[in-house]
Each structure stands twice: as C-alpha cells, then as structure tokens.
Design a protein that fits this description.
By secondary structure, this protein is an alpha/beta fold. The protein has 7 helices and 10 strands. It is globular, with a radius of gyration of 17 Å. The structure holds 2-amino-2-deoxy-6-O-phosphono-alpha-D-glucopyranose.
C-alpha cells in the first residue's frame, strides 16, 4: 500500500485526478471504476476542468460504478446515476453507452447483479478503481459482515450507513434500505486502486482499515492485500496513523 498524505481536500482531489489522468493518457480506452459520496466530488471537478482545458479525452473511456440504491429511478436526484451525470458525465465527452451502474430499478435483484457482473466481465475488468471509505469501513456498499462478498450482490444497509447517508435525503426514512454493490472480489481484481479519505471523522476507521487486522468486519482492510493500492488522505484523516 502506498500511503500519501496530502495537505488538504483540494490537494487530495488534485492528486487523485493526476493518477486518473495519467492512466487516461497512457490508455485512452481504459475502464475506470467510479465511486460516489462526497469524497470524490473534488476529484471529478478536477477531471472536468482538465477536459475543458483540452487535456483529457473521455471518448474511449468505459466506466463502471461501485453501487446503486435499490428501488430508486435514475431520474431521482438521490440515485447514484444522477450523481454521476451531475458531477461528471454530462460535463465531459464520455459516451453514455459506456457508463454503467447496477440497475436499482430491476425488480429481480439477482438478475440485476448477474447482468452487472457480465458488464464488468465484458469490459475486461477494471483498470483503476476509485474508492471512498464509509464511516464503518465499507467500500462501495460492502457493509461489515462475516465474509467478503465476491461479486455484485444485494446489500441490506446498516443503521450506521443509513444514518451517515441521511444528510443527502430529506430524512432518514427516505434513505433506501437496500442497495446493489460490486463485490469485494471484483474490487480486489481491479488492476489498480486509489482510495481517497478526508476529514477527522474518518481518522479512526482509517487507522483500523490501513493498519488493523484484515477482517470482513472492516471491509476496507482487505485492501492491505492488494498489490497496487494508492491511499491519498488529508492530514485530518491521517491524524491517527
Ligand atoms: C456511500 C458510498 C460509498 C462511499 C461512502 C462514503 O455509502 N456507497 O462508495 O465511499 O458513502 O461517503 P462520503 O465520501 O460521503 O464520506
């Protein structure tokens, strides 16, 4: 694991964008694994600016997102589809036919998971996976549990995650109880991973994930076993390391 301490959120976001830009330059037809949440917003803003400056070309890029809430439509402004469009896709020259998220509206969740696994497989796997860190150590929506799920699966969100994510909804009752998430196995098969972490409320879980035992009760701890992970974190998130 390469752990890089950055000055602050902006510095972290620029450095994450540097890594993504380098890959896009070297491999214009790369497959990017994308994340949602508040942490990557600055990274996406940097990518958009670089595109607008003429430095980046998204025309050959394929994207696969980590997760999607179950039961909310793409038009819903809380869907991760909406988030990605709003924060990245609609601002760059990406082919929307090559942007993928699990289908949260498919009533048959097993089918939605299976379809998504096939999409990732057909894309040839993920070249670079961007990850944020949940307050309870989750990555994507892989919640703390007894084992590391391999591929895309239906998740029952924990009360902690519902609580952490209610800030994006009108109330905690509005937060969907279930989601579809890429599995830990798929994440671990990505050829490279960038984990971005910011803020002092993540300091404790950061310490557990990066330096504690590898356990499915802290899902991000599995990243200690990946051969090509770069962790970019600001000084607050790094304060207990
Ligand atoms: C959500 C997402 C995760 C994300 C996490 C952290 O639950 N499913 O992929 O990493 O939130 O969000 P934030 O970056 O807002 O702390």
């Amino acid at each position: 694991m390469k752990i890089i301490r950055t000055r602050d959120y902006d510095d972290m976001s620029r450095k994450a964008a540097n890594i993504i830009s380098a890959l896009m330059t070297m491999k214009p037809e790369c497959v990017l694994g994308l994340a949602t949440g508040s942490t990557p917003i600055g990274t996406y803003r940097n990518l958009v600016n670089r595109y607008l400056n003429g430095d980046l070309d998204f025309s050959g890029v394929t994207t696969v997102n980590l997760d999607e809430y179950k039961g909310i439509t793409r038009e819903n402004d809380q869907s991760y589809y909406y988030f990605m469009n709003h924060n990245l896709f609609q601002h760059v020259n990406i082919d929307l036919n090559r942007t993928f998220l699990p289908d949260g509206t498919e009533p048959d969740a097993l089918k939605a998971c299976d379809d998504y696994n096939k999409v990732i497989e057909a894309a040839g796997g993920v070249d670079l996976q961007i990850l944020g860190l949940g307050h309870n150590g989750h990555i994507g929506f892989n919640e703390p549990c007894g084992e590391f799920p391999d591929t895309t699966h239906l998740v029952r969100l924990t009360p902690e995650t519902i609580d952490a994510n209610k800030r994006f909804f009108a109330s905690a009752e509005d937060v969907p109880r279930q989601a579809l998430s890429m599995g830990i196995g798929t994440i671990m098969r990505a050829r490279g991973i960038v984990l971005i972490i910011t803020g002092k409320e993540k300091a404790q879980i950061t310490k557990q994930a990066l330096t504690g035992p590898v356990t499915p009760s802290v899902p991000a701890s599995i990243l200690q076993y990946h051969k090509n992970v770069t962790v970019l974190l600001d000084s607050e998130a790094a304060s207990l390391l």
